[in-house]
Amino acid sequence: MSAQRADQPRIAVIVPTYNRSELLRRTLAALVRQRIPVGEFEVVVSDDGSSDDTGDVVAGFADELQLEYHFQENLGFRASAARNAGARRTSAPVLAFVDAGVLPGPDFLSAHLSAQLSGSAVVGYIFGYQPDGPAAPLDETAWTLAPEQLVRRYGDSPEFRDVRHLALERFDFDLGSCAVPWQWFWSGNCSVRAADFWAVGGFDEDFRSWGGEDTELAYRLFRHGARFVVSRAAWAIEAPHPRTTVPNLDSGSANMLKFLHKQPDTVVELLWTWFARERTQFQIHHDWNVEDEYLLVLDAVAAAKPVDVSDELARLRRTAGSARIAVMGCGDDVPDWLATAALFDFDRDVVQNATHQVSHAIGLRTALPDNSVDLVFVTSRLRTLWRRWETEIRAEARRIGRELASPLAPVRTVVGENRGQ
Questions:
Q1: Which domains does the chain have, with CATH numbers?
Q2: Could you tell me the strand order of the sheet in which 342-345 lies?
Q3: Predicted confidence band at 413 (pLDDT cuts at 50, 70, 90)?
């Protein structure tokens, strides 16, 4: 990090909020109790158009915190825009993000600053965070305790753990060896160097409903070269509040599809598939880890490297006629007659070196519109993945086309009737 001015705060906390004045009050009260000097940090409350007494609540802390208040007109859910606007109002070299109703422990900011010495994207721990279930089963009197007292009393209870606990524990809370570390970077408690945040453009303001905007930011930070670390010392607690589980899952799934369209990549395709599957079950199983599935895809990439599908594509030409075609697993030697086809491959090297336009995808979910092709052809390069994902690949073929053909499925199949699914 670059040198800072003597009067510049070391870290800023950005708190987006909308009509959560009482939850916000508790967050600000917890920030007052930080053990680092108040002159070393500032708090920016970024209000997404509240109609309650949020402004008065913020004003009530003006003598206790270095505090900025930003208000934007209520034009619908714009948490990404609120976070970006808040970040613009500070010159601090480190940006921490928490949600209104998240109660930082007294060493929250010092722990984030410490973790920033070994990484530039810090995943903070959130006790009590269960986004798809009820709040931790604590009695009402428990919430009169200070955050550190709550953690001392309930911190070992499985119901009070961060929902990501088991997944992170598997890596001993060290993301250095993790292939997909960015999947655990959530805006309820995280920090990032301001230079990296702005280098990738901040939060994408096209996300205008719940879920996914923080994961999409984390993906871009990872591609930018940010190092992800977990800090259990930078803990906070999520205070209980009403949840809209099913609408949130629907919104999260839709936003993951938006994420996939913006960042076509096999790992994002896997993430969308997880959300889409869990949405149908109205719950999220956080022990399902994109890490495992992505490592299997990387194994499949290695297995497919020597597979030559030129004969398969030649036979396809003899039978395809004038059909509109999508090819899954096209490989790196695509004949010119397929130049106008929708081409996909799961090997990034194939995509980057292709002489024709090839999209990076397995075929679980593509960016193609409904009913956009007549024939979906799946080559034998997908043999390993076909065994695991046949159901999903067939479902995508049904969405985008009419027929499926593949040496992996010897019988040519009518999968759709050119109707949206």
A1: 11-243 (3.90.550.10), 307-414 (3.40.50.150)
A2: 358-360, 342-345, 325-328, 375-378, 403-406, 409-414
A3: confident
Candidates 98, 228, 105; CA nearest to 175 is 228
Segment holding 47, helix H or strand E: strand 41-47
Residue with tokens 């996914």: 212
Dig out the tokens for 114 from the structure: 């410490």
For helices 266-281 and 290-304, what crossing angle results, to 10°? Answer: 140
Give per-residue pLDDT as tens, 329-348: 999 999 999 999 999 999 99
Tokens of 54: 């949020």
- Of the spans 171-185, 278-292, 402-416, which averages the highest pLDDT? 171-185
Give DSSP secondary structure letters for 96-161. Answer: EEE-TTEEE-TTHHHHHHHHTTT-SEEEEEEET--TTSPPP---GGGGGS-HHHHHHHHTT-GGGS
The model scores a pTM over 0.90: yes
Query: Residue-wise over 310-329: b if at least 16 C-beta within 10 A, else e?
Result: eebbeebeeebeebbbbbbb
Distance CA 19, CA 55 (A): 10
Q: What is the rounded CA–CA span in Å between residue 421 and residue 415?
A: 11
Per-residue model confidence (pLDDT) at position 416: 73
**H or E element in which residue 211 lies:** none
Does 96 score more than 60 pLDDT? yes
Tokens representing 410 are: 């010897």
Residues 6+ positions from 245 with CB-CB distance below 8 Å: 131, 132, 133, 282, 283
pLDDT at 406: 97
Lowest mean pLDDT among 105-109, 162-166, 299-303: 162-166
Q: What angle do CA 207, 127, 274 make, to 5 degrees?
A: 45
In this prediction, residue 283 carries a pLDDT of 45
Measured in whole angstroms, the distance separating CA 45 from the mean position of its chain's CA atoms is 23
